[in-house]
Design a protein that fits this description.
The protein is an all-alpha fold. The chain has a domain of 49 residues. 61% of the residues lie in helices and 0% in strands. It is extended, with a radius of gyration of 48 Å.
């Protein structure tokens, strides 16, 4: 009993239709990493994060060190460019060469004394007698200031009035 080509292909297809779900079920169930493999993967991730963090810290330290070295080099260059200061005889010779007989003395700065604002703080003890005394009323207002403030709402001469913004918006 010899099977034909189409019969063999059909049998193979039927077996494949049955075995594919079975193999897939075994694959899903038993193809998981072991606890040891999971631990190794977790350690590798942690080590990679630490390595990246330390590389960033080292780069920052290196950048700070480079900036410090550049600053020191600039300071040394400034000191070298500043040159030496002349003593009194050399200074007098230089001033004479410039045509000035008496060298100009630098002006000494006077340091102003610090200003200290001391506020007088009175402690007023409120009692019934203090509250009823008629002599301790509020101070009289500054009438000059009140008069100037009242003139502020009137337009000054020579200054045009500001346009009313509400009417301008309505016109547009």
């Amino acid at each position: 009993m010899a099977l034909g080509l189409f019969q063999l292909i059909g049998i193979g297809l039927g077996i494949a239709i049955i075995l594919i779900p079975i193999v897939r079920w075994f694959w899903k169930r038993f193809d998981m990493p072991s606890k040891f493999a999971l631990e190794v993967l977790r350690r590798k991730e942690i080590e990679a994060e630490e390595t990246e963090m330390w590389a960033g810290i080292e780069a920052q330290v290196e950048a700070e060190e480079t900036a410090r070295r550049e600053f020191e080099m600039k300071q040394k260059e400034k000191q070298e460019r500043a040159g030496k200061s002349l003593d009194e005889t050399q200074s007098a010779e230089v001033w004479n060469k410039l045509g000035i007989d008496v060298p100009i003395q630098p002006v000494e700065r006077e340091i102003a004394p610090p200003i200290v604002n001391e506020k007088e703080s009175e402690v007023i003890e409120l009692t019934l007698d203090n509250a009823l005394k008629p002599g301790q009323g509020p101070e009289e207002p500054d009438w000059e200031l009140v008069q100037k403030m009242s003139k502020l709402d009137k337009p000054a001469e020579g200054i045009p009035e500001a346009p009313d913004l509400d009417t301008l918006l309505e016109e547009e």
